[in-house]
Amino acid sequence: MLGQILVLWVFLSLPTVSSVALKYFYRALSQSTGLPEFSAVAYLDEEPIYSYDSSTKEVVARQEWVKEAVDPDFWGRSTHILMETENVFKDNMNTARARFNQTSALVLQKLYKCEWDEETGATDGHEQYGYGGEDFLLFDMKNERWIAPVRQGLITKMKWDDNVKLKAKIHYLTHTCIEWLKKYVPYQRSMLERTVPPQVTLFQKNLSCPVTCHATGFYPKAIKIFWGRDGVEIHDDVVHEETLPNGDGTYQKRTHLTVSPEDLQKYNYTCTVQHIRGDDVVLSANRDSIRRNIRRHYNITITIFMVFVLVTLVIGVVVIKRKGWKGKDPTAGKEKQCPTSLPEKNVLLLNDAKPAEMEKPKMSHPADTLQCPNQDDWLRQIVQQKRYNFLKLFKSL
After folding, report:
1. Low-confidence residues in the chain, pLDDT < 50
2. Minimal CB count within 10 Å: which of 63, 184, 297, 335?
3. pLDDT tens digits, residue range 80-125?
4. 295 to each of 205, 291, 301, how far by Cα in Å?
5. CA-CA distance, 22 to 25, in Å (whole number)?
6. Span of the secretion signal (predicted)?
7. Number of helices (H) and strands (E), helices first, in the chain?
């Protein structure tokens, strides 16, 4: 959102040289946006450390070190508090909408911050509300009062200027918030001071795809990856992706090289990864070092070949049996009958129950005569069924 509240947000995001700050940012939206109606994020300086939103109804850690800094019950307590805060914010949105005489509510924001100077021990605090991208209420802790930049906030200012509420607000910003800030700082710095080397691999989906140099699991975030050919750094046909965070607090980065299979064999291509932790990692892009999916395609080819052989054998057996049928009539000397399914057997039993009617001659139509399928039709059905099964299996691979 544009407006003065974002300007002040930037201003409050710039702590003094020797100070650290703990900030909380709340936001409530209308239902029509499709985003969570309420969200809250806690920051230690510029780093988000945990968050909550109305869609998940749960406080989750944004940094691994936060889990070590708090007790196990912290997450349940914080979730309960923010669920109550969510309800209060929804009521405040309706109040603001009525104050401004609007048919639908705009964005309501809250930002509060405590700051600690490690050299002098001095503390400071700020709090403000914004509505529709404009300042709505500002807290002047030095003079112990609220300031209403717009007339719609005057009613709230007079209510909140009550002496008891002001003292509680000041105590929180100068004591409670500072205690949490001092608790978080050592854990954050122990994490920032650590260094983890990258794990580097080369992979390629197939011979026509670019070769990817993938570095992952490293910390801190700063890293350099570049491709070389015969010892000379190259930039053409090289694409760098942005560095992305992993779920465990480390980072990953990928760099792609587009190169033909012929050039890959002709020249010595290398990927070099430079990180603050440890020596440079240099991998040569050759047949043994690049991971590919060739084995999977090989297994698919073998499977298709085996299925083809099996279908061929089945057709061969059927052809041999057919030749045997042509040389011998299995119905010689016997009444010829068709194989019957269960419904057909029932029909035959009903006919047997009325032999007199069966003996009466009657005119018949070719369509009324039940005929047995010949051997050619039966063989054709088997081959078509086997062919269908083969094609179905082939498509599923």
Report:
1. 1-16, 294-299, 331-373, 393-395, 397
2. 335
3. 999 999 999 999 999 999 999 998 888 999 999 999 999 899 999 9
4. 11, 10, 10
5. 10
6. 1-19
7. 11, 18
Tokens in use for 44? Answer: 């230690």
For residue 296, the one-letter residue type is: R
Indicate the DSSP class of residue 111. E
Structure tokens at 242: 């942005």
The gap between the terminal CA atoms of the chain, to the nearest Å, is: 50
Q: Is 208 exposed, middle or buried (0-12, 13-18, 19+ CB in 10 A)?
A: exposed
Q: Could you tell me the two tokens for 323?
A: 């030749």
Single-letter residue type at 213: C
Question: Taking the alpha carbons of 358, 359, 363, 366 in that order, is the dihedral positive or negative?
Answer: positive
Instruction: Give the ranges where the chain is alpha helix by DSSP (H).
Output: 4-12, 64-69, 74-99, 154-160, 163-171, 177-193, 261-266, 294-327, 342-352, 355-359, 375-396
Q: What is the dihedral of CA 19, 24, 25, 27, to 10 degrees?
A: -170
Q: Given this model, what pLDDT does residue 48 score?
A: 93
Q: Which residue has the tokens 């560095």?
A: 243
Tokens coding 326? 């042509």
